[in-house]
Amino acid sequence: MQKSKVKTLEYPIIKEFRLNGRWVSPNEKTIHLLPQQTVFLIQNGKLGPAIEVKVSSKSTEKEGK
Questions:
Q1: Largest CA distance in the chain
Q2: Which residues, other chains included, contact 47 with Cβ-Cβ below 8 Å and sequence gap of 6+?
Q3: Is the model's pTM score more than 0.90?
Q4: Where do the DSSP E strands lie in 1-65?
């Protein structure tokens, strides 16, 4: 049974806000967050709509010879 992975999305930063004890400023351009973390930040005008990010999947396993 596989667990479904929740993907983080990239959001443009519009206004400065505090997240997990750290200030995030618009100078950082974007931030990767889970959809559950963004509800109030979007409603308060701190973040813009999500941007889909293409992630390359590379295997981290080494193949034996």
A1: 55
A2: 11, 12, 13, 14, 31, 33, 38, 41
A3: no
A4: 9-12, 17-19, 22-24, 30-33
Cβ neighbours of residue 13 closer than 8 Å, sequence gap 6 or more:
24, 25, 26, 28, 29, 30, 31, 46, 47, 48
Per-residue pLDDT tens over the stretch 4-59: 666 778 989 999 999 889 999 999 898 888 888 888 889 989 999 888 766 555 54
What is the rounded (10 degree) CA torsion for 21, 24, 25, 29?
A: 170
Task: Write out the two tokens for 29.
Answer: 């351009």
Token representation of residue 36 = 């559950």
The first and second tokens of residue 57, run together, are 């999947």
